[in-house]
Amino acid sequence: MSSEETKLFVRPASGLVREFSITNAIFYNMLSSLGLSCVIVFTYVVQFPLLNIAGIPLYSLGIILTAVICMIFGLCFIPLVAAMPRSGGDYIFTSRILHPYLGFMETWMWIWAVFTFVALSTWVPLEAIRINLFSGVVLPNATQWLSWAEAIMVPSNVLIFGIILTIILALVCLLPTRLYAKTLTIGGAIAFICLLIVVFLTIGASTSAFEENFAAAMGVKPQEIINIAIERGFQPTGEFDWASFGMLFTFALWALLGFNLSAYLAGELKGDPVRNVLLAMLGIFGPIFSNAIYYLPFHTTFGSTFINAWAWLNNNHPDLVPYGIIPNPFIITVLARPQLVYLVMTLGYIIGFLFNILLSSAYVINSSRIVFAWSMDRMIPSKLSEVSKRTHSPIYITVIILIGSFVFYLLTMFGFDPMATLWYGILLMFPYWFFPGINCIFLPYRRPDLFELLPARWRKKVFGVPWISILGVIWTAIILPTYTVTYFWPMIREMLGIPLHRVWDYAMGESGLILVAGVVIAGTVLYLAMRRYNEKVLGINMDMLFKRIPPE
Questions:
Q1: Binning pLDDT at 50, 70 and 90, where does residue 229 land?
Q2: Helices (H), strands (E): how many in the chain?
Q3: Domain range spanning residue 231?
Q4: 436 within 8 A of 78, measured Cβ to Cβ
């Protein structure tokens, strides 16, 4: 055996340390899901039937039901972490169970999707600042506040803001791992407390006072907003239909995305990683609250029909919305209690800044561990897997991911439509949703050596079939039809229905298909090139390498 092979198969410890406690992991999962959805939830509730079931809006029921279904997805990670308790997540699982190429491509696509999500999360605080400045509409010098809100989106300010936010994000991501975990937990707790304060400020507010303040500030009465929306096609009430509910389920998947991501840091969780990953999934209650429950007091106090009409106009006829302001909890609270405008604006800045900086940092850290695992397997230069003794994290990789995210921020703000960027990211994320179930199905059969190492409770069988395989089948039967109906088939139908000369425009700019294809081709070329280099030049037995899991 060559010295290079010895170095690979008897490798030193990775350098990552166990710094994440259960509490840290819970906040890591929660913040990976939250973002600023609590602020913009009002604008997308109206995409779904406006009806109540047992006094609870269908939207809220759909989020809660989807959270229950998502726990099936989350449970898929438990036996995988038990078999391979290492940082790197799906790359480790898929490359060791199915095939190295599939593991690399799944996470290669994930990294490019993360660039878009972090870029959009950098844009959201900018939007949050603009929204909070609009809250000044209740002040005597409202014109000045509105002009400041408009000035925020001037290209030079957008660029400066992006640079500043990326620098702050870098400072957070490059903290020593233990300090980063504490910062994540404390910052997340502060943001969540501020979120609760906004709710409590609204509870008990006078509906009539709100309507008067709204009319004075906006120049139009709430009932007039409802009438305008109805004239344009808004339906104040809705009827249940499965097609709309399917859309709601799909949306909820993305609203809850990230509740399980502590599984990608399994090698850095204190104590029993399997137990901690399972407990950390309790972080799903954060996004459930912000997406399903948070907006209910606003609708109860100020009228569901009015807020939905306002949101509907914003989505369909934004030119008819006063000042182009979207309905959001801060503006609604300010209109209910104008005397608290500065307090509410301050809370909004804290929430918007902390949630999105910490969300972005969680995705950067998560991605750095995936790329770290690539490097340990020599799929990219091993130099990148060096772990800083000061931070106990791979600094080179983290910086590269930050640069990539900033580039996508610039592309989104000065070129791509944000929705096209989001659609592109969603397509790239399909393997992330799909392969955990497939890995559970095949783990007992393709890697019986790892399966036999699981605790007895994870090796139980039902009618001779391992229950983890059944779990994988159930999740696959859920996610595959969901993606097909809501993403793949609509794209195919759109492609078939447009003129031939518009196919390129659709595939390139509107759906991101060309970009996704480019990412897949580039990843395939990189995988084949690195595999050939390792085998032919360095003499490494890559098949043997992928039969082992990385060291601690």
A1: very high
A2: 27, 4
A3: 3-63+113-415+519-545
A4: no
